[in-house]
Amino acid sequence: MRNLHAAVGTTRVLHGVNLVIPAGETHILFGPNGSGKSSLLATIMGLPPYRVTSGHILFKGRPVEAVPVDERARLGFGMTFQRPPGLDGVTVEAFTAAIGSADMLKEEAAALDFRGFEERDVIVGFSGGEIKRWEILKLFLKRSALCLFDEPESGVDLEHIAAVGGAIDPLLGANAPKSLPRTLLGNTSTL
Which residue ranges does the record assign to the ABC transporter domain (predicted)? Predict the structure, then answer.
């Protein structure tokens, strides 16, 4: 990002952000609530109503600030959300088939201890920890190259925060595909 400015409506939410994250690195944004961490991630992902007012977002050397969110997803952007919506009538199995990852579901779900969820509707009735594991599994299944984590510990009780970190670890660890180096950017207000 170079001198990135963004707004929601007429309210400026980012003011001259400069950040370089080389491929394969992990960076964490730490700061108080309201400091713009989630706004930065939403702007990078291209989520409405956030809009870039000036500056650049570069991905693999290409400017993407004008690229729509669906195209960014096809380029390899992926994001977990603090409070993702449930998808009534869309099973985990149907979702993974729709993104072309049905063949990977059982193995990747087992790695995250997320077995037996194939026939359940996405996020409907999931506990806080199950939601976080689903959000991480979604990034695995999409084979996201740029993984954006918006407060992955939110909604998870203190005794399970380490489990969320353990679920994220395989994205970075020895079992991560060498052909697909992942870059992670996350934010938290909890240390």
Answer: 14-152
Q: What is the pLDDT of residue 130?
A: 87
Domain housing 35: 2-188
SS3 74: helix
CA gap 135, 2 in Å, rounded: 29
Closest CA to 7 of 33, 42, 32: 42
| Residue 83: CATH number of its domain | 3.40.50.300
Neighbours of 122 (CB within 10 A): 22
- For 132-167, the DSSP string reads HHHHHHHHHHHT-SEEEEE-TTTTS-GGGHHHHHHH
CA distances from residue 94 to 83, 85, 134, 162 in whole angstroms, order as listed:
21, 16, 14, 30
Give me the number of domains the chain comprises.
1
- Pairing of β 26-30 and β 183-188: parallel
How far apart, in whole angstroms, are the C-alpha atoms of residue 90 and residue 84? Answer: 14
Is residue 152 reached through a cis peptide bond, with omega within 30 degrees of 0 on the bond before it?
A: no
- Residue 126, judged by CB atoms within 10 A of its CB (0-12, 13-18, 19+), counts as buried
Distance from C-alpha of 126 to C-alpha of 124, rounded to nearest angstrom: 6
pLDDT single digits (tens) 55-94 = 999 999 999 999 999 999 999 999 999 889 999 999 999 9
What is the pLDDT confidence band of residue 181, given thresholds at 50, 70 and 90? low
